Amino acid sequence: MATKQQELGAEIIKKRLGRASLVQQVLFYPLVSSTNKVAWEMALTGCPEGTLVVTEEQGQGKGRFDRSWLCPKDKGILTSIVFRPALLPVEVFRLSMLASLAICRTFSRFSGLGARIKWPNDVMVNGRKLAGVLLEFPASSGKVEFAILGMGINVNFDPQAIPELQGIATSFLRETGRYFDRLEVLAQLVMEMESGYLALKAGDFGPVFDKWKARLTGLGEIVQIMSGQGLDKGIAEGVDENGALIVRERNGQTRKLFTHDIAWGLKEVGS
Ligand code: BTN
């Protein structure tokens, strides 16, 4: 148990992650707007795959659908990794799947507790959100030039103390009553990501997909799909290897969703 709230820094992160082949470069900032934004700018300047951006505080931390990501200074893991993957655009969400699985495994290893994944890649513990994953990549034809994988993990604070997070978020501290060494949590996360990414690059994503799917909640539930065209309901029938949610709609047809906003666990599919 770590009771001292240690700070992160470039040198200690580099030293601790020295042997990780996934990490080629560490950029640490005490405060940034958003690690995804910094990583995106780095990617545009041609930085190598494996550029890891870490911060202690974000002024404009962002989540999916332009929501904000809140995390008090020095209390969480706020990081983004630049990938230059040999993946088709339809396959790129595999990186998010690696991330949510890696976070679940990291949490379970440190806490001894289970964690589940709410589609697409929210990490949930006891029905509350422990961590979020934000994948961003430039829309271009045919190939993925780069992808930014952002991860926010709640570690050493109680989200109940933050009005916007009350009742919906949790943390390592809240679930265990203990403080954790964030450097060790980050190191484990990188190790888990690395083994998944090596498997993905070797064309052996199947076992990773199976582990991801085994942690997924909500299959078989009625869902509401929020899109530009309004709302629609269907049954979440399954997922595919690229992380798409397969939904059977009221008209009997199935639809594959990648980035939609979904409300889960509704009572009925009709009307
Ligand atoms: C979500 O759940 O909607 C995704 C949240 C992702 C948050 C992380 S924190 C580090 C990185 N930088 C950001 O601005 N967002 C991601």
Specify the number of helices: 6
Task: List bound small molecules.
Answer: biotin
Shape assignment: globular
Sheet with the most strands?
8 strands, mixed
State Rg.
18 Å
| Class per helix and strand makeup | alpha+beta
The total count of strands amounts to 13
End-to-end gap = 52 Å
Give the H and E element order.
HEHEEHEEEEHHHEEEEEE
Secondary-structure topology with pairs:
Elements: H1 10-16, E1 25-29, H2 35-44, E2 51-55, E3 76-83, H3 94-111, E4 116-118, E5 122-125, E6 128-136, E7 147-154, H4 172-176, H5 182-201, H6 206-215, E8 216-217, E9 222-227, E10 230-239, E11 245-249, E12 254-257, E13 261-266
Parallel strand pairs: 1-2, 4-8
Antiparallel strand pairs: 2-3, 3-7, 4-5, 5-6, 6-7, 9-10, 9-13, 10-11, 11-12
Bound molecules: biotin.
Report on the architecture of this protein.
- With 271 residues, this protein is α+β, with helices and mostly antiparallel strands.
- It is 26% helix and 28% strand.
- The strands form two sheets. It has an eight-stranded mixed β-sheet with strand order 1-2-3-7-6-5-4-8. The chain has a five-stranded antiparallel β-sheet with strand order 12-11-10-9-13, with no helix packed on it.
- α3 packs across α5 and α3 (94-111) crosses α6 (206-215).
- The longest helix is centred in the last third of the chain and has 20 residues, at 182-201.
- It is globular, with a radius of gyration of 18 Å.
- It starts with 9 loop residues before the first helix and ends in a 5-residue tail after the last strand.
- It binds biotin (BTN).
